[in-house]
Design brief:
By secondary structure, the protein is α+β, with helices and mostly antiparallel strands. It contains 14 helices and 8 strands. It has a domain of 164 residues.
Length: 385
Amino acid sequence: MTPFKKTILFLHRWLGFISGLVVFIVSVTGCLFVFQDELQDAFKSYRHVKVEQRSFIKPSELKQAALKQFPKGTTGFMAYYGKDRPALVMVTTAQKTNRYVYINPYSGKYLHDEDITRNFFIIVEYIHLYLLLPPKIGQLVVGISVIVFVVLLITGMVLWWPKRKSDRKRSLTIKWNGRWRRVNYDLHNVLGFYAFSISLILALTGLCIAFNWMSDTVYKTTNLGESYAVEKYQPKSDSTKKGLPYDVSITDRAFAQVRRETPQAEMFYISEADRKTPAATTYVTAYYSSMHFYRYDSYQFDQFTGKELKYLPHQKKSAGEKMNAANYDIHVGQILGFPGKVIAFFASLICASLPVTGFIVWLGKRNKKKRNPRIRHHKKIVPAV
């Protein structure tokens, strides 16, 4: 082995020790989360409603239906997930717990509510993002571990790369009839090679979620260094109007306007401005496809007057803005539909296996050295005559 490859091996081995456990946890939880929509749809009947030939109820009616269940609660965001799906309102109860309240979007009928901290897949998501640590600390730990994992992928590829053409076939196949240590070695190297490109994509999109600087880098790189003011501009509500009484119809009118201007949208996310922050605006996002987050038009409205302050349609977004908008769908594989999720699942599974098989490879070599200590040869000393 050349000195260069010895250095790469040293980095690969010790960086693997440092990040292995976190990479394993993040990868396993990623596997579990990929199919969370399909699994929850299969076991939770309230996630589906019968399609009716009438409009959705207004956001104000949606809030009212949710607060009937928790009269002393306060509402957070609201969402209409599609024609055959319930609407959702996040409610903070008087006990300061956050609950998702599911409402029939046509009739306003209460369907179900749940404590979001007890939802299995939300717990899995929190582990995936924060390791159940405080968010700022956990996100930093996960983010740094993913950066190390990217380095491991690259150094692993350098170590895998065969010197001779005759070695390529052996480097691309697993010798299933070999001893178990050889099979483990091949699993680490061969599966790591096949999953390299997908794993790298999953890692980089994960870094975009963890760090703003990464998403900014993707934005500027995709835009060839350009930054567009219309995309970065954040309007403010007219704070001189803060003395006006609260008008429940403002959000209703904003939602109706969005439905007119983006008629093809199937899913809507509404985040009302906090009245305690006069400059804050009300957001309405219109997603073109239900349960997909790539293509959407975004709107912002004055919280006091309902005036439209910003409208950014998907068609007018820059390539960098579209790339960041597609980040989540790419990360979970759903950018390619169900087949994409299958690919993401198996790639995550392989990522989870790499720290395990790598550790076994290291342990085997360490034990081999103990069993076969290096024999030292000494020159024979001939006694003087």
